[in-house]
Amino acid sequence: MKTYRPRNRVASRVHRVDLRQQSRWSLALIMLMGLATLSVLATTKTLSAQHTSGFHLYSSR
Q: Which of 21, 31, 37, 59 is 20 to 30 Å apart from 3, CA to CA?
């Protein structure tokens, strides 16, 4: 039983590091999604500025 307790403590430490790493990955993913959104908005704005005459993104129903 004495060898089991240190393993349990090490496992809990590894779990804490895993939670920190997971939060870092989540933050990185959120930042990437925001960057992708800004990129799409900038591209759409650029395209609509270039084609102001007859260019429509949405159908006019």
A: 21
Average the pLDDT over 18-23 and give the result: 89
Per DSSP, 58 falls in state S
pTM for this predicted structure? 0.52
| Contact (Cβ atoms closer than 8 angstroms) between residue 48 and residue 57 | yes
Query: What confidence tier does 20 reach under pLDDT thresholds 50, 70, 90?
Result: confident
Buried b (16+ CB within 10 A) or exposed e, 9-42: eeeeeeeeeeeeeeeeeeeeeeeeeeeeeeeeee
44, 55 in Cβ contact below 8 A? no
